[in-house]
């Protein structure tokens, strides 16, 4: 989709005002905002590499209003960009072409809880933490969790198939979606799956919208699955001298204990959190990397086994030091060492590479990546962390304060191609969980074949024939 097809940025002030007035009348009594603060706030996500330039922000409260917005967009050839908690890291919710931003802040109700089926119906604007708390109040558990759970929206999680820290045990967001209602690019309302566990009746269209980044249509309701809560969660935080040792620790523990999480981060990442987020060091010893393991410690036998495995890792030289949580307060404090990284480093406008390979290839893969990055970015600070238990690595390059944003982005893009060539060689993904958006679409061919991309474009044309739904994201038509 080209800029010429959505020319709102080129409209005169009078024509823009007339278009907004028609939109306001179309969706009344839904709120429509056009002031500069609103355009800047709702026109972007956590990425800072594109300047937002939306036409207006609309806040529907009902499905019918979403349908009205889509029909208005088709009639007036205006692009639409979905907006949730705006925590995305791929510029998938950035409006740069004079689009209308559709914010789901007010579609945030939870209803129709079914204790037998362990399902609950959510509006797209339900905050992830709100769903987690609701599940807890019912004696159940919603396991998709990440640092932005206090602000991210369920609709956005589904649109990007969010992963997070519990994937090794519970899988991705798509594993917890029992049904969806969506409004397509034609304004049609579709309902998928209706909460069924088994439904072998042809193509599973629901899955196209999970991870579709709003390019096929907007999620307006989701039926989410819940499960039993984990019991007596315990964390082991281990200091590891070499990256290869992290995988040896994973193999050692995973063969004996069912893990609910396995994370890693570098000393540089921990140092930032300690200095800027007020988090205490877990132990005095500094090591190049840290491995964080979480498991259900249901009895003393499991605790003893965990300590035996820890001692085995120390004897083999894979672990230098470590600490195990003794209560919930200690568990929460240890998790801050990992969970506070993203927010802490955001002040440096990091260029993020969210890459993945199968777990068995991680050591060799990361060694090659680290060699290239260290060689090409000698003057940049590199922060490593990620969900290494499922092969997902987060490479963060911090922008020097004195370096202009455009020059920083240009240098990062150049080396990213070399990084993605390694990703391609290992059969990996250039975007493990953050989506493609604007930031990664130029690199899509490193993971998807030309034939796949053409098929995806064909699917988009079926659901969004006029190309109004989140135009320019994932690929250009």
From TrEMBL:
Key words of the record: FAD, Flavoprotein, Oxidoreductase
Cofactor or coenzyme needed: FAD
Ranges for domain FAD-binding PCMH-type: 50-229
SUPFAM superfamilies: FAD-binding/transporter-associated domain-like (SSF56176), FAD-linked oxidases, C-terminal domain (SSF55103)
Highest taxon of the lineage: Bacteria
Keyword check for Flavoprotein: yes
Family that this chain belongs to: Belongs to the FAD-binding oxidoreductase/transferase type 4 family.
Name of the protein in its database record: FAD-binding oxidoreductase
């Amino acid at each position: 989709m080209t800029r010429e097809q959505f020319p709102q940025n080129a409209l005169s002030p009078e024509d823009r005002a007339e278009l907004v007035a028609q939109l306001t009348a179309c969706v009344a009594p839904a709120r429509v905002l056009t002031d500069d603060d609103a355009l800047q706030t709702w026109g972007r996500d956590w990425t800072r590499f594109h300047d937002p330039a939306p036409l207006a922000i609309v806040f529907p409260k009902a499905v019918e209003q979403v349908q009205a917005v889509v029909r208005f967009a088709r009639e007036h050839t205006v692009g639409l960009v979905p907006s949730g908690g705006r925590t995305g890291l791929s510029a998938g919710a950035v409006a740069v072409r004079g689009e209308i931003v559709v914010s789901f802040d007010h579609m945030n109700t939870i209803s129709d809880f079914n204790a037998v089926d362990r399902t609950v119906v959510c509006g797209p604007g339900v905050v992830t933490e709100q769903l987690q708390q609701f599940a807890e109040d019912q004696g159940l558990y919603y396991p998709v969790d990440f640092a932005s759970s206090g602000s991210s929206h369920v609709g956005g999680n589904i649109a990007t198939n969010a992963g997070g820290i519990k994937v090794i045990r519970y899988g991705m967001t798509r594993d917890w979606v029992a049904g969806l209602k969506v409004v397509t690019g034609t304004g049609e309302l579709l309902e998928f799956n209706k909460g069924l566990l088994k439904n072998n009746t042809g193509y599973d269209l629901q899955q196209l919208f999970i991870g579709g980044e709003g390019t096929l249509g907007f999620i307006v309701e989701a039926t989410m699955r819940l499960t039993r809560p984990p019991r007596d969660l315990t964390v082991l935080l281990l200091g590891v001298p070499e990256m290869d040792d992290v995988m040896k620790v994973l193999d050692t523990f995973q063969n004996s204990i069912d893990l609910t999480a396995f994370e890693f981060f570098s000393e540089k990442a921990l140092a930032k959190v300690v200095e800027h987020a007020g988090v205490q060091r877990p132990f005095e010893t500094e090591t190049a990397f840290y491995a964080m393991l979480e498991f259900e410690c249901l009895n003393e036998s499991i605790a003893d086994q965990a300590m035996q495995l820890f001692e085995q890792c120390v004897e083999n030289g894979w672990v230098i030091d470590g600490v195990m949580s003794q209560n919930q307060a200690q568990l929460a404090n240890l998790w801050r060492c990992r969970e506070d990284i993203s927010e802490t480093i955001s002040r440096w406008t990091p260029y993020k590479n969210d890459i993945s390979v199968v777990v068995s290839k991680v050591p060799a893969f990361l060694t090659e990546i680290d060699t290239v990055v260290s060689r090409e970015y000698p003057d940049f600070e590199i922060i490593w962390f990620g969900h290494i238990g499922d092969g997902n690595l987060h490479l963060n390059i911090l922008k020097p304060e004195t370096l202009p944003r455009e020059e920083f982005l240009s240098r990062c893009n150049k080396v990213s191609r070399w990084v993605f060539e390694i990703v391609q060689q290992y059969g990996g993904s250039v975007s493990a969980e953050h989506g493609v958006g604007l930031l990664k679409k130029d690199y899509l061919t490193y993971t998807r074949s030309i034939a796949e991309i053409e098929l995806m474009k064909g699917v988009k044309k079926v659901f969004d024939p006029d190309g109004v739904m989140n135009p320019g994201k994932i690929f250009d038509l």
